[in-house]
Amino acid sequence: MSTAPASTVTLSGDFARALPEMSLPWQADEATAPVLLALNEPLAAELGLDPTWLRGPEGLRLLVGNHVPDGATPVAQAYAGHQFGNYSPRLGDGRALLLGELAHADGHPRDLHLKGSGRTPFSRGGDGLAAVGPMLREHVLSEAMHALGIPTTRSLAVVATGNPVRRETVLPGAVLARVASSHLRVGSFQYARATDDADLLRRLADHAIARHHPAAAEAERPYLALFEAVVAAQASLVARWMLVGFIHGVMNTDNTTISGETIDYGPCAFLEAFDPATAYSSIDHGGRYAYGNQPAIAQWNLARLAEALLPLLADDQDRAIALAVEALTGFRTAYDAAWSAGMRAKLGLPGDAVVEPLVDDLLVLLQANHVDHTSFYRALSAAARGDAEPVRGLFLDLAGIDAWLAGWRVPEPDADAMDLVNPVYVPRNHLVEEALAAATDGDLGPLDRLLDAVRSPYDERPGLERYAAPAPEDFAAAYRTFCGT
Prior knowledge:
Elements: H1 14-18, E1 23-25, E2 35-39, H2 41-46, H3 51-55, H4 57-63, E3 75-77, E4 81-83, E5 86-88, E6 96-103, E7 109-115, H5 132-147, E8 154-166, E9 170-180, H6 186-194, H7 198-212, H8 222-244, E10 246-247, E11 269-270, H9 294-313, H10 317-328, H11 330-346, H12 356-368, H13 373-384, H14 389-392, H15 398-409, H16 415-419, H17 429-440, H18 445-454, H19 465-468, H20 473-478
Antiparallel strand pairs: 1-3, 2-8, 4-5, 6-7, 7-9, 8-9, 10-11
């Protein structure tokens, strides 16, 4: 795909044109002194955008929403959502704008979306702005997730605006330019359903089918097939989160995508010592979105999607409910299959190996011994090669891990295969905080070095030992993450 200079950047308005009831035309705040902090050049090339132009004055103005190509109409999207279980009928893009859709090299469109671009009619008293640190967090975390092979929205760029942002202190402001297969959410369907406009709900479902799950259009019941496809996509996604130890932190229905992509890297973090009750988010007081709760929460969110879709599933409500319930039960089946297959790969076991007893015993050992999640699985490949000491050094209960290792070795695990799925480098929480603090003070060096490590997560490299090491114990015990709003 060739790259586009300023005059030929084309942004279509498919969402706003198809669903005008769910978008409001709006403009980004003026960035007084835009400065590029991070640019994803490979992604820019996939979108046909010239990185050199993006680094220039007009490109920066596009990335903060102040330059709008001819024919484009930025919009704030409307959606509803359950936030920590409480329903809000009108959320929407309170600090974001959809600039439009770009063509991608794979032939499928991508949303170009801004985060931190200023207040909109959906802001509900917020300032609509974002600080440098949280926007760079999303840049790092989404790039790491992409490198791990996990479906995700991606950061095209982070641009400092030159405008101050007032939180506990005054911080430098920034805008994130985010790319996604779309920004359709469970909350989008909740919003459409709440309007009691059957035509709007149907058009939204048709748009989602065309954009993400086109095979559903050929099914006997297209809208049921859409729901089943979203259930499958979310089951696969959350299983992948669990396998790498990712904790989203704010799994509200407005952060649950129809595409099956990870979205909104607010208070997210990676699991350190294995414990299903781990929740880092400062606003998750009850642990609703703790690591071990994520599969059940995803299924709960999908039940809310089912409720929104009921009028499309069958004319008779009882029949619609029965169809939805049956489809929703497929979540656990799909999740368990994805989890088991993933654990079989992480343990290097053949495809016909029964993993459940091994995994159940292992998780008990990991939790009881406070073992670092990422370190354990990577060290396990050394044990498959005959050196168990790196693994044994992680445990106090040596008899327990020795007994487990003996059973695990029986099917002859494949160490090379394990190295392809167990990362050396993830965005360690203490290193993320270190990089964001430095970047906020104007030093991008730690950020660039962290990005270099997590963009090649499976390739162990000399000189990067600190990027593979767990956080100091005192850091991990007190660590909390924040949404940035």
